[in-house]
Amino acid sequence: MELRTSNRSTPLRAAGPVGERVIRKNGLEWLARAGLVARGVVYAIIGILAVELAVGAGGTAPNQQGALQTIARQPFGKGLLVAVAVGLAGYSAWRLARAAIGHGTQEKDSAFDRLAAGAGGLVYAALAVVAVRILMGTGSGGGSSSPKKTTAGVLGWPHGTVVVGVAGGVMIGVGLYQGYRGLARKFVQEANIEKMSPGVKRTYEALGVFGHLARMVVFVLIGYGLLKAAIDFDPRKAIGLDGALRELSNHAYGQLLLGIVAAGLIGFGLYSIADGRYRKV
To answer: What is the DSSP secondary-structure string of the chain?
Structure first.
């Protein structure tokens, strides 16, 4: 009996050391850091495009795909987009590994952290695929209608309104959590602040707070749109990142609000780039 139990548990015991070797690979650490930089570049470009929209310099409300297409149009854009795609894929791999193993080389993750890591890993894997499609010339130029089409499909499911409503509530919760992380400076606990000079630490914290609050506004608006779509049974109410930015500009003092949130997204991008240097991975 003891021998049989031992044999059955061997694969389970072996899974731990395998996971340890994967998470501690230097290559995965560098992919994680490159991914944080890539994420920062995407957010910074979205913020810059949103600033142009706020000041009336033309263009449409940006989203992640639009940011990647902007990179591709720059001098040496294809090479830059390849680097960003690799970085996003690396970030996704790191987040998924953290979700599966439950810790990095420097810190342990709670159940909530693991769930968030898994969701983030899937989102950035999809964004890496979009970058590859743009490189291959198959990426569409739109993207703003995608949330509406997806929501329309889900609303047609049995209990689809409940699914969309729950998704909206979750998105609002994620947004509020972003605001909490910023105001409580929770993100500082994830950084090697002992490696920062006092000036770098102050700048890092300021960018992190400002950036997380900007993300809160955007996520809450997206969630609110999903809730409205579920309540009104109208998929046209669903919006993505670009729709959330347009929503800001449509209100009183909309251009000012859009400019503030756009600056916050640039701040989050710069914070994320700095995180590539200082994040505990």
So the answer is: -HHHHHHHHHHHHHHHHHHHHHHT-HHHHHHHHHHHHHHHHHHHHHHHHHHHHHTT-------HHHHHHHHHTSTTHHHHHHHHHHHHHHHHHHHHHHHHHSB-SS-B--HHHHHHHHHHHHHHHHHHHHHHHHHTT---S--TTHHHHHHHHHHTSTTHHHHHHHHHHHHHHHHHHHHHHHHTTGGGGGB-GGGS-HHHHHHHHHHHHHHHHHHHHHHHHHHHHHHHHHHHT-GGG---HHHHHHHHHTSTTHHHHHHHHHHHHHHHHHHHHHHHHHB--
